[in-house]
Design brief:
Strand content: 5-15%
Strand order of the largest sheet: 6-5-7-9-8
Number of helices: 16
Oligomer: single chain
CATH topology of the largest domain: Rossmann fold
CATH superfamily of the largest domain: NadA-like
Shape: globular
Order of helices and strands: HHEHEHEHEHEHEHEHEHEHEHEHEHEHH
Structural class: alpha/beta
Number of domains: 3
Distance between the termini: 32 Å
Length: about 375
């Protein structure tokens, strides 16, 4: 995948002289708090639930993609430091004013799912659908996608969604008398369709590596929802047998999972939902309850720590960690804040204005639908 000019700039950027690499974690945290106090309302630190504890402890707002998108849209701070992955920082830049700057705390933090769908590939698929006589189709992009894909969606009258509101967004789109093309996450799209009562026979997986998505004329005609075959590598670590194993080991345990999991895993769960939803379930549960949680390990470990009166475990025996989220450390945040305080901030994440304008349409439709 071709590198962007901004990625080249971020790689080439040399931060101002700092001894951040040599100080301890406690000293780093203390210096970050000092800098935040000094910068005051000029700086806002946003962190996703999947960040490590040491980063979350320093954040002003912690949440899932929907909550962080809203926080960015409502922010008045001139400097927004995003502890997450690149598509999240792009979304924040799109939703903020030109006078605000968004910095990705760790410039190398990307998202493999977002990289599974390029604009060129999507444009080709769109043309193939039209040539095959698929009828009216509207795009629905999971927010875990690039700004360019969000712009495609805005340009074609669709909207974005998060794991919190995927079913709502799909319902709105189908109510327009159209078929839906959901991307890049096949599994979330399938779960949303099932939630609306659509039979699996009315969904069709679009294989991004094959002509016409690998679909024959009948499958293309019968489908109401086309599902781009992307996925989250972390949530594919969970298996149906994991639920059975925990129920045998801990009778009465409740299994809850993220909707990026496969449908056969969700079928074995007691409930599913976004990271915000999963967190609320565990936090609100009575003492003594037991929970096997199917999502990224940093959030699961944090839920266990703040709920010592409950048993909270990862559903998977594997270490289900998001390597890209884990790239961000407190020292990553410190480097950005020191540079901002010194008046020599790193290059912000900037989405081309033409792309941002179209992407904003899709994001605003999502926020209105949520």
């Amino acid at each position: 995948m071709a590198r962007t000019r901004m990625e080249d700039r971020m790689e080439a950027y040399v931060p101002p002289a700092s001894d951040a690499a040599s100080v301890s974690q406690d000293e780093t945290a203390a210096r970050i708090r000092e800098l935040k106090a000094s910068l005051g309302s000029d700086v806002l630190l946003l962190a996703h639930h999947y960040q490590r504890d040491a980063v979350v402890a320093l954040a002003d707002v912690v949440g899932d993609s929907l909550r962080l998108a809203r926080a960015a849209a409502e922010a008045t701070a001139r400097h927004i430091v995003f502890c997450g992955v690149r598509f999240m920082a792009e979304t924040a830049d799109i939703l903020t004013d030109p006078g605000q700057a968004v910095y990705l705390a760790e410039a190398s933090a990307g998202c493999s799912m977002a990289d599974m769908a390029s604009v060129d590939a999507l444009e080709a698929a769109w043309d193939e659908l039209a040539a095959a006589g698929a009828g009216k189709v509207l795009p629905l992009a999971y927010v875990n996608s690039t700004a360019a894909l969000k712009a495609f969606v805005g340009r074609h009258g669709g909207l974005t969604c998060t794991s919190s509101n995927a079913a709502q967004a799909l319902s709105w789109l189908l109510s327009q008398g159209a078929k839906a093309f959901f991307f890049p996450d096949e599994h979330l799209g399938r779960v949303a369709a099932r939630e609306l009562g659509l039979p699996l026979t009315e969904t069709a997986v679009w294989d991004r590596g094959k002509a016409r998505g690998g679909l024959d004329a009948r499958a293309m005609a019968e489908a109401r929802v086309y599902l781009w075959n992307g996925f989250c590598v972390v949530h594919q670590m969970f298996e149906p047998q994991d639920a059975a194993a925990w129920r045998e080991k801990e009778p009465g345990i409740r299994v809850i999972v993220h909707p990026e999991c496969r449908l056969d895993v969700i079928g074995e769960a007691d409930a599913y939902g976004s990271t915000e939803t999963l967190s609320r379930m565990v936090d609100a549960a009575p003492a003594g309850s037991k929970w096997a949680v199917g999502t990224e390990i940093n959030l699961v470990a944090r839920l266990a720590e703040r709920n010592p009166d409950k048993l909270v475990v990862s559903l998977s025996p594997c270490q289900a960690i998001c390597a890209n989220m884990y790239r961000t450390r407190p020292k990553s945040v410190l480097r950005v804040l020191e540079a901002v305080a010194a008046g020599t901030p790193p290059p912000p994440v900037r989405v081309d204005p033409a792309v941002a304008g179209q992407a904003r349409l899709a994001l605003e439709r999502m926020l209105a639908c949520a």
